[in-house]
């Protein structure tokens, strides 16, 4: 199968291509350069694999949560490419893709967390089954002290563990077997999860994919942002 995957929800930008057994990726931590990099990287990967755009069978995208502009850009690009090519799209949770970065084995549990700014984190708990993260609850946005997990042996992954002076990492220290607070989501993991989702029949028409912002108001005024920060102090 030939599948292109995009992940632009955080400060990292990445594009991946699956071509049969081949998986190749471009990845860079490049704040505010996602729009500049994504399409040229797409063309470069196709050229590297010797494929024309018309050979692509599906487009996958990290649907968030993450930075509003990055999530919106990724969804828009994926929809535009899929519509132009006449192929379906697969939306993958950015937190699930991030969970793939954890040092966790079969049956182990992962807490994926992304710094949401304004004193909050995006997070979701997962269990690894058949090599994939399966959500144990809903995706959540809130202050680090609102995040609850049961038991020990968790693998923490993502920038949410470094947010607010390592607040989440410190509070859950006794429950964590490992923490990678620098990990960022990769399009390669979006692609891996999307291939499995495609085989399960979860691909949809491009116009049906939707972003996951989690916040009710993704465009707070400056005064609202200052008030929220003050409430977290």
UniProtKB/TrEMBL annotation:
**Taxonomy, superkingdom:** Bacteria
Looking up Gene3D superfamilies in the UniProt record yields: 3.30.420.40
Q: Which GO terms describe its cellular component?
A: cytosol
Pfam families per the UniProt record, alphabetical:
TsaD
Please provide the Gene Ontology terms (biological process) for this protein: tRNA threonylcarbamoyladenosine modification
Q: Which UniProt keywords apply?
A: Cytoplasm, Transferase, tRNA processing
Where can this protein be found?
Cytoplasm
Q: Which SUPFAM superfamilies match?
A: Actin-like ATPase domain (SSF53067)
MF (Gene Ontology): transferase activity
Record-annotated Gcp-like domain positions? 28-219
| Entries under NCBIfam families matching the protein | T6A_YeaZ
The record's comment on protein family reads: Belongs to the KAE1 / TsaD family. TsaB subfamily.
Q: State the name under which the record lists this protein.
A: tRNA threonylcarbamoyladenosine biosynthesis protein TsaB
The opening ranks of the lineage are: Bacteria, Pseudomonadati, Pseudomonadota, Gammaproteobacteria, Lysobacterales
């Amino acid at each position: 199968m030939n599948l292109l995957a995009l992940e632009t929800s955080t400060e990292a930008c990445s594009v991946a291509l699956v071509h049969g057994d081949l998986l190749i990726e471009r990845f860079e931590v490049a704040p505010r350069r996602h729009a500049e990099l994504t399409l040229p990287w797409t063309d470069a990967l196709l050229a590297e694999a010797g494929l024309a755009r018309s050979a692509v069978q599906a487009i996958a995208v990290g649907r968030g949560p993450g930075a509003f502009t990055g999530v919106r850009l990724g969804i828009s690009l994926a929809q535009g490419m899929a519509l132009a090519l006449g192929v379906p799209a697969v939306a993958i949770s950015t937190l699930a893709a991030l969970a793939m970065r954890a040092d966790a084995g079969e049956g182990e549990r992962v807490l994926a967390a992304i710094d949401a700014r304004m004193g909050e984190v995006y997070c979701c708990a997962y269990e690894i089954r058949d090599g994939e993260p399966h959500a144990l609850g809903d995706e959540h946005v809130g202050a680090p002290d609102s995040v609850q997990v049961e038991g020990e042996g968790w693998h923490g992954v993502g920038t949410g563990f470094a947010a607010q002076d390592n607040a989440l990492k410190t509070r859950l220290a006794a429950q964590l077997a490992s923490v990678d607070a620098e990990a960022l989501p990769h399009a390669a993991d979006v692609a891996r999860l999307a291939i499995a989702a495609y085989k399960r029949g979860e691909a949809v028409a491009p116009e049906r994919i939707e972003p996951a912002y989690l916040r009710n108001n993704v465009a707070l005024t400056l005064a609202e942002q200052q008030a929220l920060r003050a409430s977290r102090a």
